[in-house]
Design a protein that fits this description.
338 residues; iron-sulfur; rSAM; iron-sulfur cluster binding; 8 strands
Length: 338
Amino acid sequence: MGLLQATAQNSDSQLESLNHLNIKPFLERLQESGVLPLKSKEAIQTMQMNVGKICNLSCKHCHVEAGPLRRESMSQAVMAQGLQVMADHGIKALDITGGAPELNPNFPWLIQEAKKLNRQVMTRTNLTVLDDEKYGWMPEFYAEHQVEVVSSLPYYTEKDADRMRGNGVFQSSIKLLKKFNELGYGREGGSLKLNLVYNPGGAFLPAAQQGIEADYRRVLLDQHGITFNSLFAIGNFPVGRFLTFLKNSGNLQRYMEQLAGAFNPSTVQNVMCRDMVSLSWDGYLYDCDFNQMLGLPDSPQHISACRKEDLCRREITVHNHCYACTAGSGSSCGGSVV
């Protein structure tokens, strides 16, 4: 079985699981709220590039199902096409995700070329990959090119962080966060932005972001001398490995009931898919990274054929996993948390 066929079958299986739930379909909730069709804005602000599924970790919550054995990796040609679309249509920000973006050999080239276009560049990182001697130079490279760093730190205690990501991950992450601080990242009033991402370790929704951020700030500063700019508390999406975990543990129905019960119609106008577009490793366009992993829509457009009207005021494809973007006060969404 070929890679694309296997991926399509996996996406179909996931969608089938999300279809057969005792909850009101997300599409109906949007209809009741008077926001159908949900469309992107007049101007797209961000292109998110998922540069591949290769990662040094195999986290149990990963919606990309990334890991060391994956082989999907964006070519320089696809990157160049994405940058050309950004230039042609005035897209100001590049958000790079994966997998571990650092493991794509074209990753430094992408950052350099985006900076030549005077674009804002943000990269997601799991931090631990930068503890490898082969990639140890990258924090300085990020600082030199004024790259905003969004680093995943599942929790501020070693036991909980390692339970999600593997033994040694927490200490490795702390080491790298200290290095970023030494380079000037995460300092109040500084130009080098260091943001952290928290996501729950089980089948429950995150607590209020303000409280979690205060806890992270206190513990990381008091125990490790680490500072950062902002923390994003993001609920886990029922996609990929986390969906498998929910099904195998018998928690899928209960978790989806939590998400559906927390639906807040006031968040819909600000979901990130409305002012961004997601580019897959093989060059296809999606509304967000989660739709990308689910193969939504069924026939995505290739970046080589992209026109402005394909980006702006396009109708956004939604499904039941979208409840995760509209739960509670509204978390940042639309991005892979590596």
